[in-house]
Amino acid sequence: MKKTWNYRLKKKFSFLLISFISIILIFSICHRINSQELPSPDYPTATPKKTFFTSSPTPSTSSTPLSDEEELARKANREDLAKRIDSFVQNDPEWQTGTVGIFIRVLDGKEPVYSYNGNKPLAPASNLKVVTTACALSILGPDYQFETSVWGGTVDPATGVLKGNLYLKGTGDPTWMEPFTSEPSKVFHLFAQELKKKGVKVIEGDLVGDDSAFDREFLGRGWKTRYMLDEYAAPASALSINGNCVSVVMDKGVVSMQPGNNYIQIVNSATEGGGELYVDRKLGTDTVTVKGNIPDYTVYRGITVNNPSRFTLSVFHKVLQANGITVKGKARLISETLDGDYTQSYQKLMFYKSPELKKIIKEINKESDNICAQHVFKAISHIAKGQGSCDNSNDVIKEWMTQRGIETSAFVMADGNGLSEYNRITPKQMVEILTSMWDDPNKEVFYDSLPIAGKDGTLSYRMSGYDVRAKTGSLSGFIALSGYVKTKGGQVVVFSMFTNNHDSSSGRIRYCEDTVVKMIAEFAGEL
Question: 502-525, pLDDT tens digit by residue?
Fold first, then answer.
């Protein structure tokens, strides 16, 4: 009896204790729900944003008001650093053999740290790729893809004849080359296989290359004839393959081409004991001459083509032939008279899309890729104005700069990769473009594309140990460097340095640039 009573008493006590604890927990939870904002279940939890500088959090550009004493101290520090930089700039005799322009400003500062010909329009060489890629991210977007498509009519299942013409429509994809692919004509083989699956054996009409997305001014204005045959100065076209270059292969006296095509004409005059093997092409033609000695090993020589649109179409034509598809008509480029708007009467049979723009931009800035830069440059106005051309893209980029509050007088973009000596931009304009990209929605893509000092790209062997991201630039007599550097004081400083028409060695000018950047990086005070 006593045991039963004790058991019941303990049971009641346990029930009351559990109830009391439950009430406390419920009250606590209700209080927390009422006192904090919970993440919406409809959205994923935000992941921390990557910072530009890996050694410490990215400084904010938003500045709090400084006291008069702080303002004076910072002004004194800027003047101190400016004197150090100016002493080096003025007293280096080799740097002063050319025209030097420098502009330096703290990312969140109003007053420049240093300006030397900062408002002087100069040729920026490959630094111009900064402008091309920055604007392209805004106009095209980081996920933009170039599309190459094939258009045609119906197929007679009994005979395998495709009625009418077959159109190859390009929009300027520059990625049918290394490092994006080791097989430039791979997509054409895929197209041919798809046509065969559709039963196509014969194309009744012409094979037509539609390169109308870009104009046919394939070369940039102001490009020098001395480098127009070199692969880094390849022409740009809406139809493009293998960087618009052909590889001439000499193997035991037999000459072939990669990629294979029916357009480039080879004149082989190489002989035994004929001297060093030499590959040449007369400008304005697509006839390549091979001279010199026949080597006892396989030799590859790359050379630009004259008409990239015809070259690309010819590669496609040869691939079709290799896959057993016959073209009864001609292989020709699009004509407004003959073709009109063929997309209204033909259907898109297949298409291929390039890697995203953010990957192409990384190749442009890290490796200073000229052909990719020129194609992206023209793509800007193809999307913004309907046709890609240097003039149109120059106008679009000036409008983009104006929208960002950047003054554009004397600014000229004759091309998108910096090969032209007609290009003009001031160091201050370059700094303002770089500054505007810091708060841009695409800033991470842009920053990730810039070479990292001592680590990758064209800065792999420069300024190791310093927190620098910058774009290099180099032409004969022209050197440039623009980007961001973090100081010992934890501030981000934006800089741009152009040297035009110098008589010194390129290595010496780069040493001068690096010296100035290191001066900024090693400054410990607040600027």
Answer: 999 999 999 999 999 999 999 998
Give strand ranges (E) for 252-365.
254-258, 265-268, 278-281, 287-291, 299-304, 326-327, 331-333, 347-353
Whether residues 235 and 349 share a domain: the answer is: yes
* Dihedral angle sign, alpha carbons of residues 293, 294, 300, 306: positive
pLDDT band at 276 (very low <50, low <70, confident <90, very high): confident
Residue 108: both structure tokens together: 């969140």
Cα separation of 125 and 478, whole Å?
7
Of the three residues 334, 353, 372, the one that is the final residue of a domain is 353
126 and 157 fall within a common domain: no
Q: What are the C-alpha distances in Å from 215 to residues 1, 224, 309, 360?
A: 105, 20, 11, 21
Q: State pLDDT tens for residues 348-386.
A: 999 999 999 999 999 999 999 999 999 999 999 999 999
Q: Does residue 325 sit in the same domain as residue 413?
A: no
Residues 137 and 257 in one domain: no
Choose among 367, 360, 427: nearest CA to 113: 427
Question: Contact at 8 Å (CB) between 412 and 393?
Answer: no
CATH number of the domain that 374 lies in? Answer: 3.40.710.10
Contact (CB, 8 A) for 487 and 109? no
The amino acid occupying position 122 is L
d(CA 371, CA 363): 11
The string of pLDDT tens digits covering residues 303-358 is 999 999 999 999 999 999 999 999 999 999 999 888 899 999 999 999 999 999 99
Neighbours of 456 (CB within 10 A): 13
The total of other beta-carbon atoms located within 10 Å of residue 142's CB is 18
Cβ pair 417, 370 in contact under 8 A: yes
Is residue 174 located within the same domain as residue 320?
A: yes
Domain limits at 336? 147-353
SS (H, E, C) 86-128: HHHHHHCCCHHHCEEEEEEEECCCCCEEEEECCCCCECCHHHH
**Is residue 349 located within the same domain as residue 365?**
no
Kindly state the average pLDDT of the residues 100-115: 93
Kindly calculate the radius of gyration of the chain based on its CA atoms and give it in whole angstroms.
31
Q: List b or e across 278-296, with b for residues whose CB sees 16 or more CB atoms inside 10 angstroms.
A: ebebeeeebebbbbbbbee
Burial class of 350 by CB neighbour count within 10 A (0 to 12, 13 to 18, 19+)? middle
Residue 393 has φ and ψ, to the nearest 5°, of: -70, -35
Count of structural domains, the chain: 2
